[in-house]
Specification:
The chain is α/β, with parallel strands linked by helices. It is 38% helix and 18% strand. The protein has 14 helices and 15 strands. Strands 6, 7, 8, 9, 10, 11, 12, 13, 14 and 15 form a ten-stranded mixed beta sheet that branches. A three-stranded antiparallel beta sheet has the order 1-4-5, sandwiched between helices. It starts with a strand and ends with a helix.
């Protein structure tokens, strides 16, 4: 079970123009991600996913180089099953021996950004290997799933006020979803424009369909408060990333001003960031992205914080198959997990990277019981879209 190799491949998948959408991130013309592959000397292979950007598109060259030339060499020759220790080796770098012996961290440069993303991708692959070696799904290794299937919400919602109902109703119809998420914020223009879109959505959808809103951190505190006040009667499921992740106190101020649940976390990098959110009482729902926030190992630590502070857990799953599967396994065992994000944007990395797909039935997603992450990577897909 010693690690023979760690490789990373930038996958760049163009999206046909007719399937592209526009948001505050701009026109989404491609889906990009870094596929991490870890192979052991026994021949077992695990896969994970790292991301250089929260959204769909982004240059992955530096991240792929970091995984192959910095993080990967740190763990070559190590037992792939020692996941917790290997996480600390990558997080602490040359001072890992101090961290492991003394029981506290010695991270270089605070370990944020693409370094955490790279650690997350490798960590997923190690859990995948461990599950495969034992013939059990990752959720079994994490303590067992709490239910055989979980409710999912359809994530998208970019249309203007006069078309938003048609777009969201189309999402509902595709999987009998009982919850949908729409984008608001700077992409709309002014707060009044976002309010108009949300009110139109609420008026046009059945009352039993929950609506969540995501501002991608583009409002300031005053705008976020005004938005919450003006959509108070819409009974939103949550308001996601009202303000930039750099302003945690501002986020706490927004939360204190409203009874709309506040969700955040896709732009945070590790448990220490989520600890600060919890201590500030800035969020009702934690949404770590496992391809950004350190993988499965760190997500379990974040969920423990959520449980201690009575914060719900709904991971950010806007990514490829490895990101989605990893988040699904953690959500399935989380004592605070309650819903799964399901991308309704054009997402070939979710539906084509692996031979297995994730199918919504009656608004729910089955928790698969295949070994490891439960994925078989389509090598033809990888060969077709890899960036040299």
């Amino acid at each position: 079970m010693k690690i023979r190799s760690v490789t990373a491949t930038w996958l760049h998948v163009p999206i046909p123009e007719e399937r592209q959408h526009r948001s505050d991130f701009g026109q989404t013309a491609s889906f990009d991600s870094t596929l991490v592959r870890v192979e052991t000397e026994s021949g077992l292979v695990g896969h994970g996913e790292a991301k250089a950007a929260v959204g769909s598109a982004g240059n992955q060259r530096a991240l792929a180089a970091l995984v192959e030339q910095d993080l990967g060499p740190m763990i070559l020759g190590e037992d792939a099953r020692d996941i917790s220790r290997l996480w600390d080796v990558m997080y602490n770098g040359s001072r890992a021996h101090y961290a492991i012996r003394r029981g506290h961290v010695f991270p270089a440069l605070g370990r944020r950004g693409i370094t955490m993303s790279g650690i997350g991708g490798i960590d997923m692959a190690l859990w995948d290997i461990l599950g495969k070696s034992l013939g059990v799904p990752v959720w079994r290794l994490l303590g067992g799933r709490r239910q055989e299937r979980m409710p999912a919400y359809a994530s998208g919602g970019w249309a203007p006020a006069d078309r938003i109902v048609d777009e969201l109703q189309g999402f509902v119809d595709r999987g009998n979803f009982k919850a949908v998420k729409m984008r608001v914020g700077s992409g709309d223009g002014e707060v009044a424009d976002s309010v108009r879109r949300v009110r139109a959505a609420r008026a046009g959808l059945d009352s039993d369909i929950a609506i969540m809103c995501d501002a991608h951190g583009t409002m300031n505190v005053a705008e976020a408060k005004r938005f919450c006040r003006e959509v108070a009667e819409c009974n939103l499921g949550w308001f996601e990333e009202p303000v930039t992740a750099d302003d945690k106190r501002g986020l706490a101020e927004v939360r204190a001003s409203t009874d709309i649940p506040i969700a955040t976390g896709e732009s945070e990098f590790n448990r220490f960031d989520f600890r600060d959110l919890a201590e500030l009482r800035a969020a009702d729902i934690f949404q770590p992205d496992l391809s950004i926030a350190g993988g499965i190992t760190e997500a379990m630590r974040i969920e423990a914080l959520a449980s201690a502070y009575q914060i719900r857990f709904a991971p950010h799953l806007w990514g490829g198959a490895c990101t989605f599967a990893s988040g699904l396994h953690v959500a399935a065992v989380a004592s605070t997990g309650f819903i799964i994000e399901y991308s309704l944007g054009a997402n070939p990395m979710l539906h084509e990277l692996a031979h297995e797909d994730f199918t919504i039935v009656d608004g729910h997603l089955e928790i698969p019981d295949r070994p490891g992450l439960g994925l078989t990577i389509d090598e033809d897909f990888v060969a077709r879209y890899r960036v040299s």
